[in-house]
Amino acid sequence: MAMTPPPAILRLENVFFRYPGGEPVLRHLSLDFPKGEKTVVLGRNGAGKSTLFSLCNGLFLPESGRVWLDGEPLGTSRKALREARKRIGLLFQNPDSQLVSASVREDVSFGPINLGLSRRDVLHRVETALEEVGMRDSIDRPVHALSFGQKKRVCLAGVLAMEPEVLILDEPTAGLDPAMAEELLGLLERLRERGVTLISATHDLDFAYAWADHVRILDRGELVRSGSVSLLAEMNEELPRLGLSVPWVVQVWESLDGRVSSDEMPRSLAELLRAISGCS
Fold it and tell me: Which of 15, 12, 39, 49 is nearest to 166 (CA)?
């Protein structure tokens, strides 16, 4: 019996968008993001990924079409957009585009203060969020003194302090060393276990294949493929034409040419090694 797919927490319906005086960026785009699951958005530079994310939390408004949040149309009033941005957190690729204050404490406090919370509640959210990203000891540091990776973690803390239902991440592991990237993935898994919907854009197909439940692939502002992330293992010829690489686990697995058997195709190095050791 087929499993019922989870409901969509975010859905775009026939969305068209272009910047003033420019060519269309999204061309009558329709797609959705399942609630409580991990979805990766792929596409070459200029495919429309970052614009899509800005539409999802109301930073941009579509020229035509509609964005739905948990079954309700995303409103355009200041009150409606403020509520949407509380529920949908967006982490930019470049932290310098997101930092708004001189100190870590002030920056992470910015969102909760604008929710009208008490000083006590603001401080609790700030300390909790910084603890989650491993930056609690840096609460009084100036942001200009932080490394790129530390700035990125402070930005993530600022988003988490809003306690969003949906977390959208634009190239979350870009610029992070392997240890920081591993810590981030651990945090994302803990958030998923708490029911947070995770959506990420990336050019790292190995990360996408190992991490996500679902994939949405854009090309020139249109949705060209959509489904389970296992779809990537079936697109060896198509991915390069879309400006994307084939996950290395898929390449290695196919090079084994049936010499190793497994109930499921491995999606990570750990799974690949287990499959190989199980047949030795």
Answer: 39
- Give the residue from 55, 50, 57, 64 showing the smallest Cα distance to 81: 57
Alpha-carbon distance 185 to 108, whole Å?
A: 21
Global pTM exceeds 0.85: yes
> How high is the mean pLDDT in each 10-residue block of the chain (280 residues)?
74 96 94 97 95 94 95 91 92 92 95 93 97 94 94 95 96 87 91 96 94 96 96 94 94 81 78 74
Which value, to the nearest 10 degrees, does the dihedral of the CA atoms of residues 171, 190, 180, 91 take? 30
User: Tokens standing for 111?
Assistant: 């969102």
Using DSSP, how many helices (H) and how many strands (E) does the chain show? 10, 10
267: CB partners within 8 A, 6+ apart = 209, 210, 229, 230, 247, 249
